[in-house]
Amino acid sequence: MHPFIFITGATSLGLLFALQEWISSRFWNYHVNLGVEIQAWGTQFFIWGVLCWIMWFTLRPQIYSASVKTILLFFVPLSIFISVVEEILWTLIFPRLPMGKPPMPFWQRLSFLLDAELIDSLVIFWSAFFLFRGVGYYQSFREKERVATQLKSQLVQAQMRALRMQLNPHFLFNTMNGISSLMRTDVAAADLMLEQLSRLLRITLHRGDAQFIPLSDEMEFIEMYLAMQDRRFAGRVRQEMSVDPHLHDAIVPTMILQPIVENAYAHGLSRLTSVGVLSIDVSSQNSMLRLSVTNSGTGLRPPAMHNGSGNGVGLANVKDRLRMHYGENHTFSISEMDDSRVRVVMTLPLHFAARPTENTTGYGV
């Protein structure tokens, strides 16, 4: 609604009417000078453009919120007043019009033009009024839509932070339990686990509220976590890791694998009396990133795996975060390969970091 664009648009509309009337008069063999038509119609709509823009600039809030009472008591009289003002200005600018009539004094010409064009002027006024009102409704709708989108985004962010905060104490509690059990049997191992735990917590704090990180960072975290678990289980778990080296810079949600690995130890590997196997495999599948964790254990049948309606806090947390991040564009499955092996598989959209990571760890070698 810049005045130049607004008034130019109105004047251009007047020129179109001038051309239409000139063509129509030619069709009926009534010869009218095109220049006069352009001047008359162009000036009339130029005046309307100025008046309507002034109305837009000064009365926009009232137009947006006008009730029926306000329209009847204020805008109806205003429409008549502005229509008369427009006709007065036009009459002053063109003293020789209307054509085909004998010369008339100003007030007689004004009366003649009001009688002929007042209804047309009122139509122009109310067309502009309802156009402005429609623009107001549209702007209000877009503003509400923007606010709703912003609130939805803030809600999702708050939910994501809550889920992240849920993971940290859960992970910390389980790790401290492992350290506590080692204090009775291997103080040196417990001390090393405390050192490794402090490094993990430092990484977690350094990430802050970041929702996505490169896969290389996630795998570095997993390697440190596996080193702690290896110390705790005294080599009773054979750890295998295979990561496609082309995927180091793939973007994944923060701490997306750790809860699954923790779940594999808590509900599977910790129940074994013999050597168990934990296998992590990361590969690409079409345009999706596939993350798989397989562990030895006692299958899915024991009640402890279910905790009523799920597979532990960690897995429920991962499912919720995947749903929030990707909607339906992901998969999550947990299945029993046989009586002693369980596999969790996730697929999510494959995206890469804008800046490649400089250093990579030794996994997948």
Instruction: Average the pLDDT over all residues and give the rounded result.
Output: 79
Distance separating the two termini: 63 Å
What are the segments in which pLDDT stays under 50 over at least 5 consecutive residues?
A: 303-311, 359-365
State the total count of DSSP E strands.
Answer: 7
**SSE pattern, N- to C-terminal:** HHHHHEHEEHEEHEE
Q: Provide a count of the helices.
A: 8
What's the Cα radius of gyration?
Answer: 38 Å
CATH class of the largest domain, named: Alpha Beta
Structural class: alpha+beta
Give the biggest sheet.
Answer: 5 strands, mixed
Walkthrough of the structure:
- With 365 residues, this protein is an alpha+beta fold.
- The chain has 2 domains: 3-149, no CATH class; 185-349, Histidine kinase-like ATPase, C-terminal domain (Heat Shock Protein 90).
- Helices cover 62% and strands 13% of the residues.
- The protein has helices spanning 3-27, 34-65, 68-93, 106-183, 187-207, 215-232, 258-267, 312-326; strands at 212-214, 237-243, 251-253, 276-285, 288-296, 331-338, 341-349.
- The protein is rod-shaped.
- The two termini are 63 Å apart.
- 26% of the residues are buried.
